[in-house]
Structures are given as structure tokens and as C-alpha cells.
Specification:
By secondary structure, the protein is α+β, with helices and mostly antiparallel strands. It contains 3 helices and 4 strands; from the N terminus they run H-E-E-E-E-H-H. Strand 2 and strand 3 form a beta hairpin. The two termini are 26 Å apart. 14% of the residues are buried.
């Protein structure tokens, strides 16, 4: 297993576990660019901005390598980290 290297001071193993994010891999954002096309953009940072009750779902503010900020629900962002994400989105499979 690779060593965990945080991308920012907000990024910890414990937080990644809680959010369902991979611990040893770099995070990515998959930007929908066309009907069946996605572009992978690296993530510089992320923050939890809200936790919804009673579900416990987190809302994140993700800062991309392009300095664009995206607000996204943690379960969808976690699904984005999976190798099958693009195929799942094209086929209409739920997260």
C-alpha cells in the first residue's frame, strides 16, 4: 500500500475514510465535457462545507488544479474516484 500524502492540511486519512474517498490515490474530478465525454482534472484541496442531517451526507467544496471551485456531494465525488465512473455515467447506472 502506498503512503498517504495529504493534498492539504484539511486532508486526513480519517476524513477520507469518513467520506468514502480513496486513501492512497490522488483525487480527481471528472468534468462532463460532451454527451459521452469526461475530462479528468486533479484536485488541489477540498473542504467539508456542510453535513446534512439525518442522512449524515457531506457537501464538499473542491478546488481543482485549474483553481476552479466546485460544490459537490461527497457520495458523488467518491463515485468519481472509481475506475468505472465514466462507464457508469454513460450507461445511466446510479452511484
Amino acid at each position: 500500500m502506498a503512503n498517504f500524502e495529504p493534498i492539504s492540511s484539511n486532508d486526513t486519512k480519517e476524513l477520507r475514510k469518513e467520506l468514502g474517498l480513496p486513501i492512497t490515490k490522488a483525487l480527481r474530478y471528472m468534468k462532463h465535457t460532451d454527451r459521452d465525454s469526461y475530462t479528468e482534472i486533479g484536485v488541489k484541496d477540498y473542504d467539508v462545507v456542510e453535513k446534512y442531517q439525518p442522512s449524515g451526507t457531506h457537501s464538499l467544496m473542491v478546488t481543482l488544479e485549474t483553481d476552479e471551485k466546485i460544490r459537490i456531494l461527497a457520495p458523488f465525488f467518491a463515485h468519481m474516484q472509481k475506475p468505472s465512473f465514466v462507464e457508469d455515467m454513460i450507461s445511466g447506472k446510479d452511484a
